Structures
1.
Amino acid sequence: MFEILSPSNTRQEMENKLDFYNNNGVEEYYFYDPYKNNLQGWLRSNNNLKKIPNINGWVSPRLQITFRLTASTLEIYRPDGRKFLTSVELEERAELEKQRAEAEKLRADTEQQRAEDEKLRAEAEKLRADAEQQRADTERQMRLNAVTRLLSMGLSVEIVAQTLELKVEEVEKMNGS
């Protein structure tokens, strides 16, 4: 049994609780006054609760937890030596975990946005390349049509090459000669 004193507890009330626990077989009884940083404890021996004389550094026989009084507070340690956290420390840890989770979500969102941006950039690049290819194909087709038409009008390969700013070899290749 472990109790923390509050301002409303009276000395008589605490003595009555000790008697009650003593009469009802409680194995260990501790109470802590946080205002005076005072810890007291009792351990059952020969069917009675006996006061623990040196409580600082005491290890509970049942729970295997250690009680340590510092200059300002009581610290309680687990059997493996890790300190039990106070409500303030637990709240700070929860806040840090919340901030870590938010930072991780932001990192994941940023990475997802980067991936989406990269996908859009790749799509835009493909559209630009397709448009460039289509422009080149259209230009090639227009030159071919112009070469064919001008040659069919009886112009020489040299005149067609000069008119379209092509090499004679290009005009011959387009004409299939």
2.
Amino acid sequence: MIRIMSIPTAGSAIRGSFISDMDSKKPLSYSFPPIVGSKPKMLILGSMPGVASLEAQQYYAHPRNAFWPIMAELFEINLDWSYQTRCQQLADKGVAVWDVLKACHRPGSLDQHIDPASIEANDFEQFFRLYPTIEAVFFNGGKSQQVFQRHVLPVLSVTPFLTRLPSTSPAHASLNFSQKLEAWKIIKDYC
């Protein structure tokens, strides 16, 4: 069974939505709780859900994002299954999914538009304490790796294996689906 984990922090009552931050007067986007089972072996990290994902309240909801088709190929997940069922299938395989950022100001969906002054990272110290079975972290693209290294890694007491994979975003068009799938096959080594 998937656990929708909530790590309580100040101002974290509303997740996965657009809200207004009173201090900065800029609208902030808030991420979702992680997809995680009882004993995950790996964690896939994005940067922050895009507009389509926030509207659908689902990770990787943009129809041209290759994340779910890649997961379907690697883990025999049927893309016609409900979002909840696909999440459960990932969790059952030992795959956790989350975002590095808990909140940020980003007009639109492109990572390059994230306002660095607005970045608030998720609490990975607590997450890794709760899930010590995680052996590897895979970054879905460069921005998630960059933000993790800058805002999370310096405060972690434990560091699992870290590697960056090509972004599944349709904005990352320098690789086709087959090339992305080939690169993502490394995650099977941790299942």
3.
Amino acid sequence: MHPIESFLQARCPDAVTGVKNAFGELTITVAKARLAEVCRALRDDPEWSFDFLSDVSSVDFPDAEERFEVNYHLYSIGRRHRVRLKARVGEEDCRIDSVTPLWAGANFMEREVYDLMGIEFVNHPDLRRIMLTDDFDGFPLRKDYPTEGRGWRTTFEFLPTTDGPVS
């Protein structure tokens, strides 16, 4: 058992739902409802001191029971170690706690995930679209979003496809 996993099992019992250690990278899947608690524990404990959130991203698994996965990449600048946290989110209750109160840098990253995937971050200080216009319909990084877009994109002229090299 990895020491971070042992720490979380002791500090946040039943929060960890899966662990994978591959290619020297530790990935811990946590229960959605316990995400903020796990993040706070990893940030505040002096042994781990994960003081930098380097990325928040998401993945769409359209056929899975819990369709979306939100990924958090944490790094400890002083201790020079990293961990990836994952939490699954269902399509019906497409919400997860914001980590912006823990890492201010999560603000724009969570807004980007919200804007492109439609995952709502509860208690986010300014959850609104960041890349697309307010009147944009849909979430273009979801796998069920039409590849040619909707509405306004149909008015664009598309380049014809060719079977051979373009000269």
4.
Amino acid sequence: MKNKFFLLFLIGLIYVFLSTTIFGDKKLAPDIIAKDIYGNDFQLYKYKEKPKILQFMKVYCGGSIAPNTVKQLKQLTKLYKIYKDKIIFVTITLASCPTSDLKIIADELGIKWTFINDFSDYKLDIIKAYAEYLKKLSDPALIFINKKNQVLFTSNYCSEEELLKYINSILETIEK
């Protein structure tokens, strides 16, 4: 009996090792179907031909945003200008206060890509769908997705140099 248990344990261990090292542990990113802050329809899976960067952030009452989130948004704004034709950028927030005007925030920070408030429909479906990733991350949280809609990387705030490494990695998957 102990031998069977040990054998099953060993097989399970080998499977986990092989699936994460040789085959990769690439989970399919949940689809996002929502309206952005301007009322435009958005669906993540519609953009099958492009990799995606999802940036999750908190917006506090009065429109206050954490300093690292502001820095990350400024970096993303700069990189968006370079990669907007190659990568889909999406920012998702949970802003429940009526004093948080997301259109003003988008304008002040130069956010020209899709900006979604997951609280606007009171469902929190995007946050729930990505909870597996978000529970391990802080504000701001970044999720990098290839054109096959597989999550390749997750990160908290990262430097522009690190962002470029992630971007180059998701762009390289286009050619493979």
